[in-house]
Structures are given as structure tokens and as C-alpha cells.
Amino acid sequence: MSQDNTSRAMEEFSKGLWKENQIFVTILGMCPSLAVTNSVINGLAMGVATTVVLILSNLLISLFRNVIPNQVRITAFIIIIATLVQVIDFLLAALFPSIHKELGAFIALIVVNCIILGRAEAFAAKNPPWLSVLDGTGMGIGFTFALVVIGVIREILGNGSLFNISLFGPKFEPWVIMILPPGGFITLGFLLLGFSWYAQRKIKKSQQKEK
Amino acid sequence: MGNLVWIFVSALLINNFVLSYFLGLCSFFGVTTKIDTAIRLGAANTFVMIITALCVYALNTWILPYAPYLQMICFIVVIASAVQFVEMVIKKTSPALFKALGIYLPLITTNCAILAIALFTTNKGYGLVEGLVYAIGAGLGITLAYVLLAGIREESRLANIPKLIQGTAINMIIAGILSMAFMGFAGLFSSH
């Protein structure tokens, strides 16, 4: 029984990392992922903030899942999430004012991040608290990972730096377009293209094996 | 007056919500397959934005100065009720339009562009008239972006797109190119 429990827990945790990665696979929560990833640090901060909100909201919603009447559940979820986001917003403003200023309104916009409401509705409302926390952690880490990947590409190409440390020296001509809005769309577009190429290659390989 | 024109043009073109702030992307990629639905969705969004701007002004004047920590909760509840209210009004007055809008109407609640209107007008300290002009500009800007993408997608259905890049990947790249085009508007007002 305990063997079952651990394997189930591992599965709930790991599915968010890659197999159901919310940005690359289900294409949810794109607004923050594109808007703040013009540098790695911003992407990382956004990812961590969202992960914290996601874990806490999953925990609370899962604890209250039997108390909240079914008809008003979305409203209840969104109020829980809004409260948590407000707390994170104040915390960031107090602890890391520079990052808070850089991210601006996008911290507040975590409230309407489809991933958080999506996990609440699809997972936390039906599962016990400890599984929901694992699910939130996995999804959050997957989300942060995706933001960091996009941030790394955009910062290296658009600014010639990584974590604000210059990589190529003064001779490098930065592709300014990459840290501007179009760069976000194009980076994610090409990343998705890469993933679909990888998936198709995998399917072809398994077909060849069957033959 | 010049200030109001600037706010309007800025929200409509230069800082287009979809193409330069990345707001409302879910509906942007999800439902803009036909020009017709794109126009309807944009119009519904604009309408809700105007109502939100009015409510936010009232909240900022009478409630939030006394309880700033309620900001997020107030905004989200106001938006959810506004959408519900608009839904009821449209259902009563024009059942045909209600049917045409269908599922898109309740979906507006989770459109980040609406919450962004509330937050940006607050952060920029806009008054009632400025807030309204900003909401109308942003709403029309969103409609414009939706219609543009829907038009391109309608055309691209006839094109021979490699299987690999079909779906979201090509839409992202189209959006990137559109966004590049919109960057050209940044030169419209040089003084700002």
C-alpha cells in the first residue's frame, strides 16, 4: 500500500515537469511567460512567485474542497487565489523592491493565470491536500523551468548577457528585437516547433521499430 | 484634449494590449479562427472593459483608499459580477446576440486584459474620463489584433503549411511578425 502511495505521489509530482508542462504542452499561462521573460532573473522571479501561489492555492482549495458548495466554487477559488496573490505582492514589494518594480502589474496578473485556476479545478478540487501540494509543486517547477528557458534564449540573443553578466564582450551586436515583444512570440513559436519536431521523430522511430 | 488623444492612440496601437503587453493571449490563440467571432469577442471585451473602468473609478475613489489590501479581491469580484451582469442584460435585451456570443461571454472573466485595465488605470492614476478613454482604446486595440490574426488564419487555411509547424507554433510566429509591425507605431508620438 505504501509502495502504491509513493509511486502515485512521484507520478503526480513529475507529470508537471515535462509530460504535462503547462506552457510547452498545454499552452496555458502564456501572458506572464512572454511578458516578463526578457531577462532570466525576471523569468525566475515570476516562476517562483507563481509556484508559491500555486502550491498554497492548491493546498487551501484541497483542504476546503468539501466545504465549498459546487455552484460557487469558481468564485471561491478565485477569491482564495486573489488573497494569496495580494500577500505575495506585498511580500515582494517589501523584500525585493527592484524585482517588484521590474515585474510591475504582472505580479497582480498571476490572479488570472489560467494555470492556477486550471489546477484548482482539475486537480485540487478532487484530491487530498498532500497530493495537491505535490501536483502544485511539480506544475510550478515545470512552469519556472519553461520561463527560464525562454528567458535564457531571449537574454543571450537580445542582450548578449546571462544573469546580467556580459557573455560576448563589447563586439557583440545584440538582437534587440529578442528582448522586445516580438521576440517573445517568436522564441516560443520556435521552441514549440522544436518540440513538435522531436515528438514526430519519436513517433517515426517507434513505427520503424514495429516494422 | 491632446492628452486624451495620446492615451487613446497609445492604448490602441503603440502599447497594444495583445501585441505588446501579451494580455488576453488565451482567447487570441484559442478562438480567433474566424473574423466574425473575432469581432464579436472584441466587442464584448471592449464593453466589459468600459464597465470595469467605471467600477474601478468608483472603487478607487470610495473604498480602496481605506483598505488598500482589498485591491485584488475587489477588482476580481467586480469583473466577475460585471461579466455576469452584461450576460444577463444581453440575454434579456437581445437573445440573438447572446446566442452568437455563446461561451465567449463568461470566458471574458478570465481574460487578463480586463484585470490589466483595472490595474493600469490605478497605477497610472487616471481619472474617470481618462480611464474611460483608455478602456475604449485598449478594447478597440484588442479587437484590431484579434481581427488581424483571424484574417491571417482564415487565409492560411488555404496555404500549404508544413505539418511540423501547424497549430500553435505558426500562430506564435505570425503573432511575432504582427507585433513587429505594430512596433512601427512607436514613432507616432516622439515627445513621449
Question: Would you kindly provide a written description of the structure presented here, covering whatever features stand out?
Answer:
The complex is a heterodimer of chains A (211) and B (192). Chain A is an all-alpha fold and 211 residues long. Helices cover 73% and strands 2% of the residues of chain A. Chain A has helices at 2-15, 30-35, 40-63, 73-95, 97-103, 105-108, 114-124, 129-159, 176-179, 181-210; strands at 161-162, 165-166. In chain A, strands 1-2 form a two-stranded antiparallel ribbon. In chain A, a hairpin with a 2-residue loop joins strand 1 (161-162) and strand 2. Chain A starts with a helix and ends with a helix. The model of chain A has no long low-confidence stretch (mean pLDDT 85). The two termini of chain B are 16 Å apart. Chain B is globular, with a radius of gyration of 17 Å. Chain B is an all-alpha fold and 192 residues long. The model of chain B has no long low-confidence stretch (mean pLDDT 84). Helices cover 72% and strands 0% of the residues of chain B. Classes of the chains: A mainly alpha (211), B mainly alpha (192). Chains A and B meet through helix 2, helix 4 and helix 10 of A and helix 2, helix 4, helix 7 and helix 9 of B.
Q: Would you spell out the secondary-structure blueprint of this structure?
A:
The complex is a heterodimer of chains A (211) and B (192).
Chain A: H1 2-15, H2 30-35, H3 40-63, H4 73-95, H5 97-103, H6 105-108, H7 114-124, H8 129-159, E1 161-162, E2 165-166, H9 176-179, H10 181-210
Antiparallel strand pairs in A: 1-2
Chain B: H1 2-14, H2 25-30, H3 35-62, H4 71-93, H5 95-101, H6 104-107, H7 112-124, H8 128-156, H9 168-183
